[in-house]
């Protein structure tokens, strides 16, 4: 199977998770972190899920799954250890042309969930097309050592520069070579070492006056 890579915008969309165990808990937290409204259906729930219940983005329904639970949902994740139930969830979702993922059973999914490295706006995903989730996990751990928190600040800086350039009515087609020059100077390493003076030197060399690291970072954070 060759999967089509895609990133979904699920902010404020209605999503369903069937299952109340540790796997379901992880899936729910990831959905909520991306802004989804999550309904969780299960006869029992982990304490971790119960602790989330005061949050308005989650609804716990303590009973067995019913087909009508799929109504008005954008996607469903099956996270149970009941194979028959998982296949029923998949069949119900297919009839409705819904996005459906069954945890650890890629042959009855129409999308699979990659291993994820997230540094705020930076999201790196790793997939083995379902062949070896363990290897995807290993690669994630390796890459987490490479992509540290400095990459989150770097992207915040790039976003601030882009916004300022657009406000100054720079032609968008002129942005590409500017950002290529900035990227070539290995700004993430300077940020990691807290070398703001050198960052500002690079900004001045490429962009001219009016571009300050702290000011650009704080403006984006406070938006």
CATH topology of the largest domain: Rossmann fold
The helix/strand series, from N terminus to C terminus, equals: EHEHEEHEEEHHHHHH
> Spatial order of the strands in the main sheet?
3-2-1-4-5
Named CATH architecture of the largest domain: 3-Layer(aba) Sandwich
Assign the CATH class of the largest domain.
Alpha Beta
Number of DSSP helical runs:
9
Given helix and strand content, the structural type is: alpha/beta
Distance between the termini: 42 Å
On the 0 to 100 scale, the average pLDDT is 92
Q: How many discrete structural domains?
A: 3
Find the CATH superfamily of the largest domain. NAD(P)-binding Rossmann-like Domain
Q: Bin the helical content.
A: 40-55%
Biggest sheet layout: 5 strands, parallel
Q: Into which percentage range does the β-strand content fall?
A: 15-25%
C-alpha geometry: elongated
- Number of E strands: 7
Radius of gyration: 22 Å
Poorly predicted regions are: none
